[in-house]
Amino acid sequence: MKNRVLVPAVVALVTLAGAAPAAGLAPPPPWYYEPAQPAAWKPAPAPSWRPPAARPAEKPSQQAPAQGGGTERPTKGTGSSGPAPQADYRSTLVRLLNDERAAADCPALRPHPKLNKAAQAHSAYMARAQNLSHTGEGGTDPGGRLAAAGYDFGRAGENIVAGPADPAAAVRAWMNSSKHRTSILTCQYRHAGAGRATGRNGPWWTLLLAAPR
């Protein structure tokens, strides 16, 4: 596509140190690092699988349901009608991260609702702004977004990427970048939060890793 703003799987990383400053001194500014796109990673080709054709609707039964007879059955989707539920991609992403951490003898990450909230808000902002950046809406930084979500961190890091179609591709992009891999394999982290927003040049992914103070 011509005039594409971002190539798939552009990644960036920020690490925050929340150590308490010495008495009488201002806290040090957060340290940012935005490495170049990892050249070794390429987006996977689109799958050739197509969902099966929809079955014709069945005629409604003439028999009236029994009084108080249960709830409606959820309609099964074909897998192409929209993005997977938030909980599904988040649980998959955390599981994949924990597989990588287990191989490095790091403890498993636990999902945290406050990190999920901050990560999702930032992914939505990046999709609207069409800008892959750790600077968020209103000039916020990852530390400010964590604080606004009510998480008091002692150590935190943020990985972002635009382009991967699913959690496995997002984790692969980060693991193929040495700085992002180091962030994921930092054993001191205890909690994880993830955000994903669809849209042009997306999906837009945000991964927050943190340990409480």
What does this protein structure show overall?
Residues 44-54 have a biased composition (Pro residues). Residues 28-88 are annotated as: Disordered. InterPro entries: CAP_dom, CAP_sf. This is CAP domain-containing protein. Residues 95-206 form the SCP domain. The chain is of the alpha+beta class and 213 residues long. Helices cover 27% and strands 18% of the residues. It has helices at residues 86-103, 113-129, 142-148, 167-175, 178-184, and strands at residues 10-17, 31-33, 110-111, 153-162, 191-197, 204-212. A six-stranded mixed beta sheet has the order 2-1-4-6-5-3, sandwiched between helices. Helix 2 (113-129) crosses helix 3 (142-148). 31% of the residues are buried. Residues 1-8, 18-54 and 60-84 have low confidence and may be disordered.
What is the structure about, briefly put?
By secondary structure, the protein is α+β, with helices and mostly antiparallel strands. Helices cover 27% and strands 18% of the residues.
Write out key terms for the chains shown.
5 helices; 18% strand; 6 strands; disordered N terminus; globular; alpha+beta; six-stranded mixed β-sheet; 213 residues
* Mean pLDDT over the residues: 73
| Structural Rg | 21 Å
Which class best fits the helix and strand makeup?
Answer: alpha+beta
Distance between the termini: 46 Å
H/I helix tally: 5
The percent range for helix content is 25-40%
Chain oligomer state: single chain
Describe the strand arrangement of the main beta sheet, using strand numbers.
2-1-4-6-5-3
Provide the β-strand percentage band.
15-25%
The topology string of helices and strands comes to: EEHEHHEHHEE
Report the sheet with the most strands, covering strand number, pairing sense and barrel closure: 6 strands, mixed
| Morphology | globular
